[in-house]
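Q: What structure does this chain adopt?
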Amino acid sequence: MNKYNYTMMCDFYELTMINGYFETKMADTICYFDVFYRTIPDNGGYAIFCGLEQVIDYIKNLRFTDEDIKYLESRKVFKRAFLEFLKNYKFTGDIYSVREGTPIFPNAPVMSIKARAIEAQFIETYVLSVINHQSLIATKTSRIVRTAGKISVSEFGARRAHGADAAVLGARAAYIAGAIGSSNTLADRLYNVPAVGTMAHSWVQMFPTELESFIKYCEIYPDSALVLVDTYNVLKSGVPNAIKAFNQVLVPQGKRPLGIRLDSGDIAYQSKIARKMLDDAGFSDCRIFASNSLDEYLIRDLLFQGAKVDSFGVGERLITSKSSPVFDGVYKLVATEENGKIVPKIKVSENVGKITNPHYKKVYRLYDRHTNKAEADLLTVYDEVVNDEEPYELFDPNATWKRKILANFRKEELLIQIFKNGKQVYTSPTIADIRKYCKEQMETLWDEVKRLEYPHKYYVDLSQKLWDIKNDLLNKEK
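A:
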């Protein structure tokens, strides 16, 4: 998706702030920013991190074109010296990130940026835009895929997405989180998300009869014949005509139909009757696909009612995360350097949930060695080392009397270096590998954390050293 130079895809205040740093000689001050999110979509127990590949592309291609400079000059806000500086602008800092496909939890950094103020400040808008969108869609998809269980889910939402980029990158995020493919062909071409699809009602309507439309489709696609049976009447004409077409075209060739698709009406009832009709006709291997404004809750109800569905196509409620359409990732300053020393910074708010965790940090995930299940995420100061060869006491940072000792655990640092001094030092995995990694990581979460409703709250705790620093800063602000 390199149609645009996304350098100018920023809030205007990013430009006025970095111009201010330039004017006040603060441009070279080393800053540390964290990217994290505050609340889980749909009141769920986890989210899925996605969008790193697009952030990498953005950082590598960050530059102001001559047209950009002319536009900024026309605003009559910036002096010539600043505009000249922008002509050679590039990112020269360090970026750490969790891997795409990682389950993530509120208030734990998913990305850490160390750079000059004039660089670190500027990238905020695009970084959040990409990560918030793809993490939102990946999280929604994960909920849907988990609910469907062994029944496959395809992403069918391109025409309902909020624009072309959202459709393509949403399909990418959905595939990473477990969808088997997408109706979006461009997502396949650009990101190797398998393109899938059947036919529209208009195909059926173009022919004199429904039966003729099915026959022609089977003749053209004998190895992948999947017909839409709800244009007129599913059980009175759709399924019977599908069976006639299969018998007339496919059976004489020794081929088998791929399936039928239901896209309206009572899918639970129709699928059960259709299954019997197909089985009685000798097509027990013919699959039943279902679509029509599905989400995790409707899928759960269909399965509870015994629907005979072999695959779900989920569109608008997935690609827009309709029930919870905002991922509230934020980009906050947590430290600066003064005379070579890291100085922690904190944002204080009357809203306790908006008080930030200060300092340049590490993020550890702690796993039970026996079960291999994730027990907690631990935020520490950058120079702390957690020893997983001896017991470690965790405590709730907001209710410090709530404590737990982990006695047999292993640690994993989640933030890995992506850029060093502006150079990419991380090799991006294939989308297939990211998808595989996401599935493996989901297995490390307790089922209680993955519940659709009222999930167990996963622990995100602070080390004693970090908690002390935060508490001291809060007391100074009183």
